[in-house]
Amino acid sequence: MAGGRGGDLGPSLAGYTGFSIEFCTAVAVPPPCVTAKYKAEAKATHLNWPVESQFKLQQLCLSMWEDDILIEEAWAGALIAVYLAKRGFKVDVFEARKDPRKEVAQRGRSVNLALSVRGIESLRAVGAEGLVTALGIPMHARMIHSHSGNTTPIPYGKKGQHLLSVERQKLNNDLLTAKLQELSGYKSYLYNNMKHLRFDFSQEYIPHGYKELCLAPTKNGEFAMAVNYLHIWPRQTFMMIALPNQDKSFTCTLFLPFDQFDKLKTKEDVLTFFKAEFPDFLNLMGEEKLLEEFFRNPTGPMVSIKCKPYHVSDKLVIIGDAAHAMVPFYGQGTNCAFEDCLVLNGILEKHNNDFGSALQEYSRTRNKDVESMCDLAMYNYIEMRSLVTSPVFLMKKKLFNFLHWLMPKTFIPLYTMVSFSQIPYKTVIDRSEWQEKYGEVIL
Ligand SMILES: Cc1cc2nc3c(=O)[nH]c(=O)nc-3n(C[C@H](O)[C@H](O)[C@H](O)COP(=O)(O)OP(=O)(O)OC[C@H]3O[C@@H](n4cnc5c(N)ncnc54)[C@H](O)[C@@H]3O)c2cc1C
């Protein structure tokens, strides 16, 4: 049997958890006492499936063949591989990308991430939370930048609660060499089955695209802005954010409608725009560097995808972005993908590793939660770029924090439920609705 290798997190996780996961040929070694339930006849892979309707099924799938588990991966794929290896399964991991260690770090493509409780707890369950906590920079609050350059912090939650800014590229350092081969029969298998699935699918591109810019450290080698914050320049219909990196740079992301990006054609267009909207940032970045990065870095689209079911009998399940891509405004895509692994592992435990019944339950129960998260991410698209500047919103936030202090178990602000708890996302929406009504009455 042949195999591939893991993506960003795979080998690091493998090393961290003490599992022997080889990402070149056949992979996770189960404890000798466990007979691998699944065994693959398939050869290894480099699948270039057509991106039909942009559906990202090809991006990540966990497929159970006769007696084996095959995983396409990056984040979620690597983590579920570790979970399954811990359960004693033999796991093959396939990754279509080149070995990232051999690629020059591409600024503008490798966004960093805000990890919160769900992601960290899902890593903790396999003993790997140190991997990100060691690499991450705590962000305790949003730092709002006005047009004039004034800054106002808005804490995320209670004292001590914070998000972790983790640079994806850092996690690539441990990666092993990729060895991609062909997986015969795989493609036709999936598509044939999808026809009989009564498979629901919907997607929505938002009008905005995103472009990354790197704000370098100062000449003295220090952070150019206050470090423990997620910096936001909210401008109602668009915004820019910045997250700190361990090398003392910031990864900044400009979210702007595509039709406005299209208008920024010349150097003058870009400078005029930044002078009007982000003058403090332009001062820090410098005109030359800004123009270089702006015209070099790509503009990416953002899509929200919902689908169901997530499984095909006991043979296949999709997790992570493949099942539920969401717009990035709540910083929950990876957190949710990692939580998929935790939830699936719990359900496998409950069903004594019977994939038939476990995948059915996973598909049914997880769907409402992750679709709720897709909706919440769309909501935060508005909160981040616009509501954070509204006095009514800020007053409400203070009131909700006070009510949370008064009744910590009964009244939990929406952001706290999403980012600092493991309350199922659907319950988060339900609770938030009655809290909003209650809050409005008091206001
Ligand atoms: C601008 C932006 C900011 C974001 N910020 C955050 C944040 O702050 N916090 C957060 O939690 N999330 C964030 N996200 C979301 C996060 O990036 C994704 O949710 C996360 O990467 C999903 O992980 P995944 O493993 O499901 O999929 P992916 O990371 O997409 O991994 C899929 C892997 O499968 C591989 N692959 C694809 N096709 C094949 C094939 N045919 N054969 C073999 N391998 C294949 C790919 O090469 C890739 O490595 C952000 C996203 C964007 C766009």
UniProtKB/TrEMBL annotation:
GO terms for biological process: kynurenine metabolic process. Gene3D superfamilies: FAD/NAD(P)-binding domain (3.50.50.60). Residues 277-375 form the FAD-binding domain. InterPro entries: FAD-bd (IPR002938), FAD/NAD-bd_sf (IPR036188). It holds the Pfam family FAD_binding_3. GO terms for cellular component: mitochondrial outer membrane. GO terms for molecular function: FAD binding; kynurenine 3-monooxygenase activity. Its cofactor is FAD. Keywords: FAD, Flavoprotein, Monooxygenase, NADP, Oxidoreductase. This is Kynurenine 3-monooxygenase. It comes from Stylophora pistillata (Smooth cauliflower coral).
